[in-house]
């Protein structure tokens, strides 16, 4: 299978403390990769390194078969992302925020804005200003902004934070739709195992900066009778059941 993101032995130290330790990951084209780990495990830092927002202390990352250099920017036009939480211009409308983003990304396709709002269920509120939006609406708008330019890769850092159960279900359906209809490769982080289990093809489990496992979900299902949640908890807590 063709890797669109290949991470080779990256580490990151902040003031001498290693927060990412020798992590290697492979994200295949057209797949959903669930990046699982408890709070503070290092998920956001790895995602930021893929997006060139943070520079690894050692190791390398290849995206679309090109090694990322500190000056690399062009590849970012093919990636949509939400890192931590989406930030908008509060006094502008949802549409205006998406327009600004398209301009910044040099993406010219006006109908794409309404399409993106429609996909995330915000088509009725495009003219509303962001300060009138609820947290869940902002989260959806963040997804709309990430996908408005029709990227090849979506990187979503805990995208279900702030969503209600209906929003979570819709997010799951949206991710599967993007994969099926557009062939989008999706890297999604979460600490909620069941959410990853319902959509992912492959998972990487990170704990205290170390990637403990990278496996295909079908292999977990085949080899272990238990749920992904059991597997995850045993790995994180050093259980020997699945060693
Ligand atoms: N700029 C920074 N300076 C110092 N330490 C940092 C910095 N950014 C992240 N860290 C540390 O790196 C570790 C990993 O953080 P990171 O945000 O990547 O984890 P995470 O898995 O995304 O967690 P969460 O689910 O809570 O968002 C944490 O211990 C964090 O305190």
Structure write-up:
With about 240 residues, the chain is of the alpha/beta class. α3 crosses α4. Strands 6-7-8-3-9-10 form a six-stranded mixed beta sheet, sandwiched between helices. A four-stranded antiparallel beta sheet has the order 2-1-4-5, with helices on one face. It has a domain of about 170 residues: Rossmann fold (3-Layer(aba) Sandwich). Helix content is about 35%, strand content about 25%. The mean pLDDT is about 90. The protein is globular, with a radius of gyration of 18 Å. The two termini are about 25 Å apart. Adenosine-5'-triphosphate binds next to α1.
Quickly list its features.
10 strands, Rossmann fold, four-stranded antiparallel sheet, binds adenosine-5'-triphosphate, 33% helix, 243 residues
Report the structural category. Answer: alpha/beta
CATH architectural group of the domain at 3-85 and 153-236: 3-Layer(aba) Sandwich
Could you tell me how far the N terminus lies from the C terminus, measured between alpha carbons in angstroms? 26 Å
Widest sheet: strand ordering: 6-7-8-3-9-10
Beta-strand share of residues: 25-35%
Low-pLDDT residue spans: none
Topology-level CATH name of the domain at 3-85 and 153-236: Rossmann fold
Count of extended strands: 10
Q: Radius of gyration from the CA trace? A: 18 Å
CATH secondary-structure class of the domain at 3-85 and 153-236: Alpha Beta
What form results from the Cα inertia axes? globular
What order do the SSEs take from the amino end to the carboxyl end, as H and E? EEEHEEEHHHEHEHEEHH
Specify the helix fraction band: 25-40%
| CATH homologous superfamily assignment of the domain at 3-85 and 153-236 | P-loop containing nucleotide triphosphate hydrolases
Mean of residue pLDDT values: 91
SS field, number of helical segments: 8
Bound molecules: adenosine-5'-triphosphate
Largest sheet: 6 strands, mixed
Keywords: ATP-binding, Nucleotide-binding, Transport
Family: Belongs to the ABC transporter superfamily.
Domain ABC transporter: 5-233
Protein name: ABC-2 type transport system ATP-binding protein
């Amino acid at each position: 299978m063709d890797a669109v993101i290949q991470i080779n032995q990256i580490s990151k130290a902040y003031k001498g403390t290693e927060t990412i330790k020798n992590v290697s990951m492979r994200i295949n084209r057209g797949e959903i990769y669930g990046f699982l780990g408890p709070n503070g495990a290092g998920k956001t830092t790895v995602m930021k390194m893929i997006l060139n927002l943070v520079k690894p202390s050692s190791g390398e990352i290849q995206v679309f078969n090109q090694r990322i250099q500190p000056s690399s920017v062009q590849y970012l036009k093919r990636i949509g992302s939400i890192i931590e939480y989406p930030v908008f211009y509060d006094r502008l409308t949802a549409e205006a925020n998406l327009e600004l983003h398209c301009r910044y990304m040099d993406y010219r396709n006006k109908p794409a804005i309404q399409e993106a709002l429609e996909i995330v269920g915000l088509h009725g509120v495009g003219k509303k200003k962001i300060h009138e939006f609820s947290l869940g609406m902002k989260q959806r708008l963040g997804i709309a902004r990430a996908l408005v330019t029709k990227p090849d890769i979506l990187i979503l850092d805990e995208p279900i934070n702030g969503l209600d159960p209906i929003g979570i279900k819709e997010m799951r359906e949206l991710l599967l739709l993007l994969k099926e209809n557009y062939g989008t490769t999706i890297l999604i982080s979460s600490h909620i195992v069941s959410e990853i289990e319902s959509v992912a093809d492959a998972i990487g489990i990170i704990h205290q900066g170390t990637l403990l496992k990278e496996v295909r979900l079908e292999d977990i299902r085949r080899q272990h009778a238990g749920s992904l949640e059991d597997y995850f908890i045993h790995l994180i807590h050093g259980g020997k059941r699945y060693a």
